[in-house]
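Aim 2 progress. For Putative alkaline shock family protein YloU, the working sequence is reproduced below.
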Amino acid sequence: MPEAREKKTPGSGRDADARELVTAKGTTSIADHVVAKIAGMAAREVGGVHSMGGGAARAFGAVRDRIPGATTSGTAARGVSVEVGEREAAADIDLVVEYGVSIPDLAAGVRRNVITAVERMTGLEVTEVNVTIDDIHLPGDEVDDGESEPRVK
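Predicted C-alpha cells for this construct:
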C-alpha cells in the first residue's frame, strides 16, 4: 500500500488558499474511494490499457457484473488502491495491457494521467503512483460475454 507523505514541497505551484483542503474556515475531506474512482477512470483513458485489476479482482467483478441489480460503482475503482491524507494522496494501479504496447511508455502515461486528474479534481498533491502490470491481453483471448448468439435455440 502506498504511503501518503504529509510534507509540503516548496514551489509546488499551488495558489495559496484557492485549492487548500485545510483552511482556517474549515476542512474538506475526500474519501479514499472517491480518489480511487478518479484514478481508475484516468488510468482507463490511456490507450493500451485493456482492463484493470489482478486476476481475482477481475473474476469477482465479472461475477458481480452478471448479478441483476448489482451496482457497478466499484467498477471504476477496480484495480486501484489509494491512501489519502489531508493534503496528499498516493495510488497503486493494477493493469492488464494490450499485447504490443510499450509497457514503460504505458506506465508513464497512466502515471501522468492519474496525477493530473487527481490533482485537478481534488486539490490533493499526488506523491506517487505505482503501476503493476498483472497480465497481457493477447489477440484472440476474447471471453464470451454472453451477448453472442446462443448455441441452442
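Residues 103-122 form the longest helix (20 residues). This observation will guide construct design in the next reporting period.
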